[in-house]
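forwarding from the other thread:

> can someone predict this with glycyl-adenosine-5'-phosphate?

sure thing
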Amino acid sequence: MAIKEETKMEKIISLSKRRGFIYQGSEIYGGLAGTWDFGPYGVELRNNIKNLWWRKFVLDRDDMYGVDAAILMNQNVWKASGHVGGFSDPLVECKKCKHRFREDQLDEENRKSKKCPDCDGLLADARQFNMMFKTNVGAVEDEESISYLRPETAQGMFVNFKNIMDSFHPKLPFGLAQIGKAFRNEIAPRDFVFRSREFEQMEIEYFVDPRDSTKVNETFEALYKDQIDFLKVIGLDDSKIHKIEVPDSDRAFYSKRSVDTEFDFPFGQKELLGIAYRTDHDLKAHINSSKVDLSYFDEETKERIVPHCIEPTFGLDRLMLAVLSDAYTEDEIDGEKRVYMKFSHSIAPVKVAVFPLLKNKPLLVEKAKEIFNLIKKEFSSKGINGVVFDDNGNIGKRYRRQDEIGTPYCVTIDFETIEKDAGVTVRERDGGKQERVEIGKLVEYLSKSI
Ligand code: GAP
């Protein structure tokens, strides 16, 4: 069933709240713009994406070192990296209604005529607005105590380059990987979790030998391919993914080559993730500023070099939104309209829901609990989470609820289970097909596709 793209976002936002995926931050106080809280299923969905990412890029490789650096860093990190001087967006303010906009996000007509999109008042000249959140560390608020909430996780890896070299003595090429929160005081947060002020990144700083430019290019291509492969792991629709070679004029100040991966969100084709060739920009900047040697000694040629860096970066919140919008499906089952989330089984927050047919029949409830515990225990021994017990409302309501949560399988225990030892009913999410499965074969049946 085709869904109008303009209403799809509203439906996704509403389902996310209704089913405990995403809530407005500080909602009972009227919210705080650009912040979002994640409910139980949102957390599980994010954890599943993060765990698959960590497995693919860290655990399954022998050239990657995982780190978890502090969010607050010495202010000199951000001076050296160029963020204090250059991490800004052009801000324009309306002289009449005082609303503020990012100049580069105004439409052409408003930008040229300097007319406010909200009230037609006159827009003042643009000024550069630094997007870092500033704070003070310690009891004294002075220049010395200034710190920033990190606007990217990347710098936490550059400042740990030497630590990893000293502890593990890796040979080039190798990478550092990190998952963590980043903060940007966006002028205009928008499109749900797409552009927020607090978000999560999954980043890799991959260090290569700059003397072999062919190898550098090959590594860039291989890491780009790994990024696209990861999108397949989490089940995103291939046809909605687009490769954009970023032109010189649009590249970040530190990048020699950038390729963005864009996705067809309900509000248009927008950046999902990216890869940048940061050269030796960051290591050199930190060498100059900290006066600490961050070079690499090549044992074979006896040369000392500053490695170059290729950075694949992923925004977890945008991945989550891509997954939600890709999964949102409306169809009809047995003449009834329904909404379901067609999550890939690998990321579904709930994998199996177990129901007693009726909740006021102790024998059914007892048997259902027994089967629930059996599946939970077996799944947990395989490292799989997401088995729930659900006896809320009638069976139809439970199916509708689990469909909206995106649960691949619902298992119902009825009188035949108890009286005739006739197994249980397993209902599959996408086609709504129901099958009777023997209890002894249930775990194997469910595990096959999960
Ligand atoms: N270390 C490089 C870096 O931070 P970026 O393109 O500015 O590069 C990387 O950000 C990714 O972080 C983006 O591709 C996007 O997925 C995510 N991201 C950036 N700003 C964001 C925001 N305000 N809200 C949500 N996600 C954001």
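The chain has a mean pLDDT of 95. thats all i got for now
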